[in-house]
Design brief:
heterodimer; A: about 775 residues; alpha+beta; six-stranded mixed beta barrel; 26 helices; 20 strands; B: about 220 residues; alpha/beta; six-stranded mixed β-sheet; four-stranded antiparallel β-sheet; 7 helices; globular
Chain lengths: ~775, ~220
Amino acid sequence: MLQNNNCFIIKRLAKATEKSEKRLNVTATVMIILSVAVSFAVCLFMLAQERDYDLVKQSMPQINALQVSDDIIQQMSKDQEFSQVSVNSKIADHSNKDYSIAIMYMDLPYLTGRGKNVEGRMPEAEDEVLLDSYYAQRLNAKIGDRVPLKIKGQEKQFLVTGMLSDLQKVKSDSRNYMVIISKEFLNQSSGPVLYNAGLYLPNGSRLGEEEVKQKMENIQQRYHLSGENISLNNSAFMKNNSLQSRFSQTGVLLGLTIFIFIAAAIVIYSLFYISVSQKTRQYGQLRAIGTTKKQIKKLVRSVGVSFLKTGLPIGLLIGGIVGYAMDPNGWYWPHTWIAALAVACLSAICILIAVSAPASKAADITPIEAVRYSGYESTNLKASQKMHRRITPISLAKMNFTRDRKKAASTLLSLAIGGILFVVVSGISASYHPENEVREHYYPNGGSYRISVDKINQSQKSKLIEKVRKIPGVEKTYPYYSIANVPTSANGWNRELNSMFCTKNDFKFLTHTLEGTIDYNAMVRENGVVFRRYREYTDLGVDCHPGDQINVQYNEKGKTVTDTFKVFAVVNGAGTTSFGSENAPVLFFPMDTKSKILDTKKLDSIEVVTDPSAVEETGTALQNFVDQSDGVELSSYEARVKSAAAMPGIIFTGLKILSIFIVLFGLINYLNTTITTFFTQKRERGMLQAVGTTKSQLTKMFFAEGIYYMAGMLICTLILGPLALWVIVKAINYVSYVFTFPVFQILAFTAVLLVIQILLIIYTKQIMQKESLIESIAENE
Amino acid sequence: MNILKTTALKKYYGSGANLVKAIDGIDFSVESGEFVAIVGTSGSGKSTLLHMLGGLDNPTSGSVEVDGKELSKMNDDQLTIFRRRNIGFVFQNYNLVPILNVYENIVLPIELDGEKPDEVFIDKIVKMLGLTEKLNNLPNSLSGGQQQRVAIARASATKPAIILADEPTGNLDSKTSQEVMGLLKMTGRQFHQTIVMITHNNEIAQLADRIVRIEDGRIVA
């Protein structure tokens, strides 16, 4: 039996092929390095972020105690039931149109539990502070500097002892800054100081929610705390570690990685396709001397594998370095190995698939094709449909463009994928209108400011509203009322829910109705309520439908009373306004409800509508008022909008970087195709010059061919890009996303493409100037 | 009347010990309507001479005049346009444009000039060269002989002052060679065209009106 003992010779041929094709070598290896590096870095970053959050969660307290005295804090600190007690107390809030500052006392465990990192030391003396690192940048301050701070209307100089930053390193400037003062300073303030405490149970991160709930009830009794003063820290029990969450995150990672490799694979396919086309004679000759089809395929695949062997380790190294640099805190070796293995396997699969079609094409070349090979890049057609097509540089360019449809299609595809992704990513960023969300959720009545009211000020609430109304520049005030942690049960579940009381006017803003109808008068008559559906609650089985009866407990003159309400409508938690309440209300009662639960309502906040011509002055006046009052804080619409605008910053930046890489892949493919074709058609070019085509006509032809590619790419991009963007915005289905076509970005993108085309023309023109006409004609003879 | 004239034409490559004298002082002229064959062995300088006659290459010294115009005085664009209008080329490898059909290849130099082809004249050439049935065909569907006929048609289509043929039968078998040579001569006679052909084949050269021998860059006979 004849044996095909050919591994050695195939490898030698593959190596020789590699060496002879420098452009293929460099371009393919660069593509592999880039795609592996980008996908590995993305995977590591996302895994690191997840790990950061896990670490932060592990350092979160299980129970929150709110507004408790120093005595209770001291007792709790000595209580063996708690492994740790962390405390904080808010002193003041300060807001302007750019940012807001919360001046607080927090101990180190509390800061760590909120995912904060402290550089330097905690403030100890009365005139020492810890600054948010972004705020420090605004003040141009560093550790050791003295900075002026206004607290309760008085400005004082403070020494900066340290900087606060987020453990998850890549969070952007939220424009909500914390300034941490010392306990010494807190003790100097007049009046009793009340603290919020984070209570850590021994092995708390391993305890289930029900177990912690029972302990909490125990603690509540022992320390004589009311229901409002103690609650579960829901963040510590958030189910982001659930199988569904992990599955969806892994799915996103896999999807992104596969997408990157598909884009790279198209380029690799194109590179190999062109290489095989150019080597028709060689492959035909190999077949003529007895190389089998299988051996030819193996030869082409070996070249691909060789590029992979070079590019993969370099790509992993670069990707690893970048991934680490983006979030060193989240680095975790087990994740790194798994991600590296996954990326290596995916890249190998994609590259092998990309190379398989050109390998088959090479194998299909017959010896006769080698003999007949003229050195021209031929077309597959035998005749044209029209006898006389007009011959101009532009028509020649069009014929050249359509000469090899597979090559043109793969080049266009990789360009179009990049273009479409660029439109989508730029479009999502352009479509993000945070002012919509801020207006709907926090300032639905068109206010410019909001005064948040602390619970201790409830007895003064009507006076407070009157005082605010009298401030110059204030046109209208809209008070919002709520109650927190109301024991509620229905349909077999029971939970403490936050609730709001809404006027008929307020109910107008509950627009995202999922089920039922909001009829204010009927709700008043029939003891109705609107239920807000949150995914976090429905995951726990807390849900309602119109017609359901829910039981609500409240305190009436020292007695616990239960009232039953009928659910009239269900609104979408994600979209519906919360009237600025930070407590995520679930139940909305009509303000005219006949139930005595109304007596338990507390003033939550006041939305302030100002004279539009005096917004800033009114803001200053309101800030002065707030500085001189206890238990109230001021925030502004503008600052909130700027904060919301900054929030998705990192995500948008990450997506933009990814889209730029994909565009780069397409451009690499295009440049390689164009330059290779340029050099392949040297003889044809020489012949055209010999029969009288001037260099400027050739340049025009080359430019026109490039424009065909660019035009094809732009057409796909401008049709499919906005369509994809529209679908995504619709799918997001959120008030802050309104379809906006990124005109400026597309214009800039088109300008860049034109510049690239012009640079290409300059380069090829230079080559043509140096080319000898005789050599061009004589090539391949 | 001389349609083509060279005076002390030289083409040297390299310098010093590496100096190669490809053409070493050629004075040569061709009369209008003449069919001249330049014969020489491989490396004699015949191709180099032809390239300079057609303005494809620049001489080291000396001059080339075609139809009274000195080629060395023209810049690259002027030379290209001059070539397009006044010189027809027939190459050994045919050198047709693969994406253009037979008809488009023939009228290529005319259309590059922005002119409309003389359809009556084109029709005559096409019929004479037996290409009527092949006008829509692309070059990859034609035999070598057919492709060379298209090349001859293209060279003749602009009614050039001179047709330069570089080993036109080099890639053809003997029968096809005879056929193509016959057509070339007939086209020349029919349209009163001057033809300068280079070949290493003495037999083919016999079909010309005059044979010029070149050896070591010089005309010997």
